[in-house]
Known about the structure:
The protein has two domains: 107 residues, 2-Layer Sandwich (Phosphorylase Kinase, domain 1), CATH 3.30.200.20; 266 residues, Aminoglycoside 3'-phosphotransferase, Chain: A, domain 2, CATH 3.90.1200. Helix content is 41%, strand content 13%. The protein has 13 helices and ten strands. Strands 1-2-3-4-6-5 form a six-stranded mixed sheet. Strands 7-10 form a two-stranded antiparallel ribbon. A two-stranded antiparallel sheet has the order 8-9. Strand 8 and strand 9 form a beta hairpin. The radius of gyration is 21 Å and the shape is globular.
Amino acid sequence: MPRSSVPTSGLATPPLGALLRQYAAGSALACDPVEQGLLNRGYRLCTTRGRYFLKHHFDPETADLAAIARQHRATQRLADLGVPVAPPLAGHDGRTFAVIGGHAYALHPWIDGRHRHGSQLTAEQCGRLGALLGVVHASLERVMPSQGHSGRTAVGGCAAEGAAHRTGSATPRAGLHGAQGAAAHSGATCAQGARPESADPAGTFALIDDLLRRVRRHRPRDAFDELARHRLQERRALLEQHADRRPPRGGSVGWVHGDFHPFNVLYQGEAPAAIVDWDRLGVQPRAEEAVRAAAIFFVRPVGALDLPKVRAYARAYRRTAGAPPSELAAAVHRVWWERLNDFWMLRWHYERGDTRADAQFPAASALAVWWTREYDTVCEAFTD
């Protein structure tokens, strides 16, 4: 009998017999959940014909069959261009996913590799990582259909913001998800081809008040509650100080991976072997993905960015993506503002009772304070 564990969500294990009959993949020997992942479910599947990654497209926001097919076509085209990805296998009917019991599943080759945070990368490897993301963006522009977006037209930038910049000294915030990849929850996603509106601080103030009420009611009180209360009060003060720096709508948009972070890049030895989890493939401001990724890869436990590594990464990204410094400058400002207004980790904790992102909160929540204080230095690292 196949060996399998029940996912943490309590969902039944995949229907392996019915699923494998649709593929030339042999019979199941073992099926174990892959721990990383906040949105969809993954399994390490061993069969009589080899090892596979079995993906259950579970998250309602990304389980649309047309979107899954689009992701699969994109990864195959990227593979044809030499981009390190792991396209799904085709079944007997030629389709790259199977729908069983109303759920969509896809079978991918198993990639032996490991995840590496920015702290584990040399400066040269940081440059290689930035170049890889630039190649992804440039390649997606070749293989994906036009969404009617304009060319690269950066909005804003460090110079424009310099006069308005005031040094902040008090609030922490998110370096964002990293460990398990919920970049989609940063508020970064937008409609296909749209230039997203930046967060309105009025709405953020209301959310802060609501979260503070939830923190006060939480029992038994613990260290997480104390940190959350402290960070929320800090954030409100910082937003009051910088409310006039709300950026305009986003600039240049194009097809992006949508969730580029350490747990979605597999390394073999010193080089990336595969970029995985393309569920958030979509049209968004491209340079903002580059900045968000850096804020995840290169955030230190104290909530500061490793700026020398950011600089090596950003230079390589700009070169391979063809992105001018002004585009990165605008993206830095928008992602900084996004971090000031984003509370997805606390919302998961207090609204959903979901604590899977709690371990990321201390470093993530400290980043906005440091970023505000070092705004010009951060901008320079991305644009130098």
